[in-house]
Amino acid sequence: MKGSVRFENVTKTFGDVVALKPLSLDIAPGTLVTLLGPSGCGKTTTLRLIAGLESASTGRILIGGEDVTHLSATYRRVSMVFQSYALFPHMTVLENVGYGLSVKGLPRAEIRDRAEAGLETVGLKGFGARLPSELSGGQQQRVAVARAIVLEPEVLLLDEPLSNLDAKLRRHVREEIRQIQQRLGLTAVYVTHDQEEAMAVSDRIIVMRNAEIAQEGSPHDLYDRPANGFIADFIGDANLIEVSVLNSADSTDIALGNRRLTLPLRGASQGPARLVLRPHHLRLAAEPAPDRIPAEVTSAAWLGNSVQYLLSSEMGTLFAITDPRAQAFRRGDTVHLTFDPADLRLVPA
Amino acid sequence: MRRTAGLWLLIGLLGYALLPWYMVSGGFWSFGWLFRPEEETRSALVWAASSRPWLWLPLAGFVPAALALGLARAPLALARGLVASGALGLALMAAQGLIILGNGTRFGMMAGETQPGMGAGALVVASALLFLLTTGISGLGRGRGDAFLTGMIGAIVALVGVFVFYPMTFILIRAFELKGGAGLGLSEFLPRFLSPEIWSPACLTGLGNCGAALNSLLLGLATATGTTVLGLAFALIFTRTDFRAKRLLRVLTILPIITPPFVIGLALILLFGRAGTITEFFADAFGWEKTRWLYGFWGVWLAQMLSFTPIAFLVLIGVVEGVSPSMEEASQTLDADRWQTFRLISLPLMRPGLANAFLLGFIESLADFGNPLVLGGNFNVLSTEIYFAIVGTVADPAHAAILSMILLSLTLGAFLAQRRWLGRKNYATVTGKGDSGRNAALNDGLRWACYALALPWAAFTLILYALIVFGSFVKLWGYDHTLTFEHYSRAFGIVLRNGIHFTGSGWDSFFTTLTIAAIAAPLTAAVGLATAYLLVRQKFTGKDAFEFSTMLSFAIPGTVIGVAYVMAFNFPPIELTGTGLILIIVFIFRNMPVGVRGGIAAMSQLDRSLDEASITLGASSATTLRRVILPLMGPAILAALTYAFVRAITSVSAVIFLVSARYNMATSFIVGRVENGEYGIAIAYATVLIFTMLTAILALQLIIGRRRLRRADRIDTQ
């Protein structure tokens, strides 16, 4: 189908280095899918394989249902927005945006019209005569997007498009990119190492680690049903606590040290496991109680919209985030922790 | 792939059937052959059908390609057919060419048959076969499936193979040749190779002259040490002091590049020779004996120091600037003083760069031909011995080949050492990140030491050049100092009578030199930059070997190349001696490494994502090269063009073997004058060359530099 991307057991090796273990994925047309992962996980390699900038060592790549494994980047109907923008410094903004059209040999008037329309789409009407060096970082970024979309590609690839922007601008530009993608109904593949960015823009996220897919799903899926400790920690921070599952039927009994807890979860396998405890699910109280776990505050940081604590407890070091309006503690204070078992998740040890 | 392959098949078949297969007299481009339907202009097809049936072989090479194009549906099958076609065709062509020569055949096959050197038809057929091969390889998925890239790689590999490696094999073979054409063997090679003429250490013990190899080695070490020390002093003054006349120092770095060989040697003779000004002065004033000390080790060493110090300077400027200011600032905040910082931080960081400059000086000294020829006297070095073995009264190609082998091993050894040993230790501390600190200034002691070492030397160099210009205007240096234009009018006289007549004896070689340099320069730049593009931007199997082989010709001394070309291209299948073409080719492959290096440096600064952006936007590699990379490489192209042009004018070592009566070059004309003792004309000619080259450099700057100006204007107006 037009705009779909499919990998069938694609691998990539550079000499002895395995950049991608056998990878299969399907990207539905019109969706924005993020490849998320720490540096060196293979996400950029995957993107470059779609673009045709790298060739697969084995396996098949299909774009729009057509086998493009051996098709060079020139002839693939995809365009890419680069981390460094890669605007041609010797061409004006309009020439940059019209470049793809002009190498196709379209008539000049059409190139100009379509390039100007592209600039309008990204809100840069009237900037066509400038050189890229005369634009701000955010504007250059949008020129790069315009240059990629005027070709009406089947797939738009974005390689960490926001990493050279400052934090404030980043949120703004990522919204714009998302709007343009939805308005034009483009299939987009977006690479980032920033999980918040990924959560904000994606229809679906593919988390990669060590040259393979760690888990894929909607942002909500990944947060709520992490497949393993890595995902739990990578998507939205987590305290991972060693526990053992005693039995599991309609609910699950676990042993946390010498405590017993019952979680409203089904079908966990018996034996060692890890408990996912989100920092903001921890509540801190000054008074002790039988079901509360005592801990000592080893550091406290007040960030305005939240307070972040590092706590030392029988479960090891815990990270907690609380509302600034809640009771404040200082280093050295003893606190007593509670949490709602319904918020807890189990992942394999 | 199908279209590209079809096109090359068609071109190949047309070349086979229509173009003259062998070299035509008068040159292909004269087109005189069109009107002479004689035997020499027959195409391969005609020859094969009449008297030379082995010329069916190249045609056989096209068969698999034609079959694959006609029958194969699957791209992979087609690609395999093309690869088979190209490989088979090239192998058959090479076989018939190498077996059946102008004066008979090799290996006793097809005895009695002869054929002349290959010509235009053969070139077209070979190219077509090569590109069928590379198109096929791209079809197998190599080079990201880009036929343009694989074609470019194939073309460069083929060119380097034919014009660097092929001739070099002749050196190897001829070195083992037995007297009287009795074949090959070790019986004569060993005694000649080990002869005291080459290896004698007598000069070390004061008992006579050393062998040529030892002389070359000692000279190389002395020159390399001297130029590195002086070059470092200059570089430190240039980058780490507030010395006022830095521009003047810059000029000093350009001088040796535009100086024809011999000029420095001649100037030294005019100063320190038996009748030299300074010799005379000391003889008159202090009654010192006039000696011939200049003609020997010290004279050659002095001339080489003058010639190559600026090169070391140029290299070391980059090295000294490459030491990151933040390292030095860190050292100073740790309470080291300036001398300690220099000794403990900066100098160790420069060490690989210094070693690089040393090896470069060593290679240059060994390859140097002009200075030892003029000043050597009884001090024999390898490069001049090779020359005399070829052009001397008793021509002895086997001896020349043995000497070439030794010289080549020395320079290659240095080249390999440079790559092996320095390649790993790269302390370059310049990163892409802006380094805002300031380099530490030198402490006083070191600064004055540098001044004391470098400034008198700079003054000496400048005086020498002034004398060269002056010397071209005096009647007979040392004897008759009347000013005269006589030398200029003899070499460059013009008579205006019924039009302009260039009557001067130098005009012929002057025009030939300019023409050939002008043709060679853009080709050199193109090959060099194309290679750089492949090395920096593309990944392919065997890239390391590819890089090594393209840089190799840098380590091959000119004399060795010259001898190898004479041996390889004097008879079929590739018979080029006596043509202008061989001069152009020798310049391209001699000067290509510098284009490659410049191109690599310039291209490394262009972010790779620029090409990738262009390619993902639907541009082909060729379009990307033309519209994105080349426009951004203006200065590098300019440098490569200038360098290639100037080197083609000043080169002598390889050229001197390859010039002919019809294509005489300026430098070999000057050699002739020097050998006749006509120093006046030689110097006048050299002066004209220097000013010609300066003009050319400025003109190129203006032409190519203007585009950058316009861009700057545009930035300013908005």
From TrEMBL, chain B:
The chain crosses the membrane at residues 7-35, 55-74, 81-101, 121-140, 147-173, 217-239, 251-273, 293-320, 341-363, 398-417, 448-474, 510-536, 548-568, 580-600, 636-659, 679-704. It is found in: Cell membrane. InterPro entries: MetI-like, MetI-like_sf. GO terms for cellular component: plasma membrane. Residues 213-418, 510-700 form the ABC transmembrane type-1 domain. Keywords: Cell membrane, Membrane, Transmembrane, Transmembrane helix, Transport. PANTHER family: FERRIC TRANSPORT SYSTEM PERMEASE PROTEIN FBPB 1-RELATED (PTHR30183:SF7), MOLYBDENUM TRANSPORT SYSTEM PERMEASE PROTEIN MODB (PTHR30183). This is Iron ABC transporter permease. It comes from Paragemmobacter kunshanensis.
